[in-house]
Amino acid sequence: MAWHSLDTCAVGQTPLPELSVVPSAASLQGSPVRPQGHIVHNWKARWFILRQNTLLYYKLDGGRKVTPPKGRILLDGCTITCPCLEYENRPLLIKLKTQTSTEYFLEACSREERDAWAFEITGAIHAGQPGKVQQLHVLRNSFKLPPHISLHRIVDKMHDSSSGIRPSPNMEQGSTYKKTFIGSSLVDWLISNNFSANRLEAVTLASMLMEENFLRPVGVRSMGAIRSGDLAEQFLDDSTALYTFAESYKKKISSKEEMSLSTMELSGTVVKQGYLAKQGHKRKNWKVRRFVLRKDPAFLHYYDPSKEENRPVGGFSLRGSLVSALEDNGVPTGVKGNVQGNLFKVITKDDTHYYIQASSKAERAEWIEAIKKLT
């Protein structure tokens, strides 16, 4: 993969090349990339090889690497930033900062290559900490949004003139759309600002922002995705999908959206809370809600994370309710989206059916066990 690098501390930056399979000998090779020079801050193509705790880079001559290495980056004590958004016109950067505070900026030719390199380099940095490496592998595919996330806070941050998302004209299929941004850039921004731990979480969070009318799709590519019933597939982590801010993102909550709840319902002790996706009763679409499970009395309430006030938008008593997991062969035809494997159902005493989707089978099992104790 081709990489570019830029040096901001009197040490040249180096771009990375194409990514190949990592051999068992713990070396990783890439195709040519362009790094930035030590003195003149231009970008030059370099061939990179990752070996244990060292990242080597080579000059190129006729598409072949020239030995010996042009330089090396010792990874012990390094910190890595990915995505790195310090250069507005270079969205595919990785930033490495060594123990001596030397900074290297490495630029990939695609988001996939950038993330693959960042993952392997992070593993090399923590190679002496097996627990950290295992945590890294779990985190790469984990899905767990923080329990008290505020969509209003995220949107306000996105509108910040210095550190927010900067809409610009973008073209799709011959048409130019003003004041838009691409899907993969928003995903990078959410991760960079610590609103999400990985791309799966960021995509789901972006889908929530769109579902709650903070964002809207623009153009054929992104408009086509919202027809999907699966929340995680409505927003596209793609450099060709365009989005913009919805004009009504600061709209006030209407009084009719409030629900009348007795003080008794909310007086119970909280035993579990977290984010789950819930299917609506009318439109059958999926929305992420913060669920709070209480005992004495036993109630399950759900909250809209786009609303600043801490009042549930729905809830029900668990007395006399039934809860069960729905496996691949048990998903009702009325349930939309790709939900097999982590879906469960709660049937209340008055025969109301709630379909709820967890982020994993383990999380689903935890919720079912907690709810069963209170039914």
What does it look like?
The chain is an alpha+beta fold. Helices cover 20% and strands 32% of the residues. The protein has seven helices and 20 strands. The strands form four sheets. Strands 17-16-15-14-20-19-18 form a seven-stranded antiparallel beta sheet. α4 crosses α5.
Radius of gyration: 24 Å
Structural class: alpha+beta
Mean residue pLDDT: 75
| Helix content class | 10-25%
- Total strands: the figure is 20
The end-to-end span amounts to 55 Å
How many H/I helical runs?
7
Strand content: 25-35%
Could you describe the largest sheet, including whether it forms a barrel? Answer: 7 strands, antiparallel
**What are the low-pLDDT stretches, counting only 5+ consecutive residues below 50?**
1-29, 31-35, 250-260
Order of helices and strands: EEEEEEEEEHHHEEHHEHEEEEEEEEH
Approximate shape:
elongated
The largest sheet has its strands arranged as 17-16-15-14-20-19-18
InterPro entries: DEP_dom, PH-like_dom_sf, PH_domain, Pleckstrin, PLEK2_DEP, WH-like_DNA-bd_sf, WH_DNA-bd_sf
GO cellular component, one term: cytoskeleton
Membrane topology: Peripheral membrane protein
Pfam family, one: DEP
Secondary-structure blueprint:
Blueprint: E1 4-7, E2 27-29, E3 33-36, E4 43-51, E5 54-61, E6 64-74, E7 79-84, E8 93-97, E9 103-107, H1 111-125, H2 130-140, H3 151-158, E10 168-172, E11 175-182, H4 183-192, H5 199-211, E12 215-218, H6 220-225, E13 242-245, E14 269-279, E15 286-295, E16 299-303, E17 314-317, E18 322-326, E19 343-347, E20 353-357, H7 361-372
Antiparallel strand pairs: 1-9, 2-4, 3-4, 4-5, 5-6, 7-8, 8-9, 10-11, 11-13, 12-13, 14-15, 14-20, 15-16, 16-17, 18-19, 19-20
